Amino acid sequence: AQTVTQSQPEMSVQEAETVTLSCTYDTSESNYYLFWYKQPPSRQMILVIRQEAYKQQNATENRFSVNFQKAAKSFSLKISDSQLGDTAMYFCAFMKHERSDKIIFGKGTRLHILP
Amino acid sequence: DADVTQTPRNRITKTGKRIMLECSQTKGHDRMYWYRQDPGLGLRLIYYSFDVKDINKGEISDGYSVSRQAQAKFSLSLESAIPNQTALYFCATSDFGTSGSNEQFFGPGTRLTVL
Q: For residue A104, which residues of chain B lie inside 8 Å, CB to CB?
């Protein structure tokens, strides 16, 4: 069975700094998807970034980028120039590349951006 | 208008009561999901449905049942609510394959408290 581990339950950084959130996963699959979801205090779940395992290039979305290390089964999220609005719970998630599968979430990292 | 809606948004009920949480989507997606979120545990899958006639149990289905009334509607029922079912419940949809994104789109969540 696949598992997703987020080793940092909570983090705090100053506004404008760069922060990296860690995620590791365990799978025997060779093709799969990885996601980072953001949950702000409004509790809405928002997709931040997505990576397909067969793509070697790391995904980027504006200030958000990932460091995908397939051999190490690591998928960290880097937030550059952090903003107060980045304060949220962040979830790492995994999905096999099969029609019949579903997403497995990590337990989350609570990120506080300090003014 | 929101693509995925959930009703009610908040509900307080008593032990032993039957509760139904409803989810509707206008995205035209085949796949729908029910998750439960507890502090420190992330999101856990309760039930998922790939179409009206295809419903599957997730990792924590005990004490819950679902109904897929139409492609756009997926309801979650607690036949006899108990206090440890107090949680935040999310409905989500996805459209595997056609766009290649496999992104899950979440509703706003239902906060359920069982006294």
A: 45
Query: Tens digit of pLDDT for each residue in A76-95?
Result: 999 999 999 999 999 999 98
CB contact under 8 A, B106 and A44: yes
How far apart CA A54 and CA A70 sit, in angstroms, is 9
The DSSP-derived string for B72-110 is TEEEEEESS--GGG-EEEEEEEE-TTTSS----EE---E
Say whether A85 sits in a helix, a strand or coil: helix
By Cβ distance, the residue of A50, A100, A107 closest to B41 is A107
How far, in Å, CA of A13 to CA of A7, rounded? Answer: 17
pLDDT under 70 in chain A at which residues? 99-101
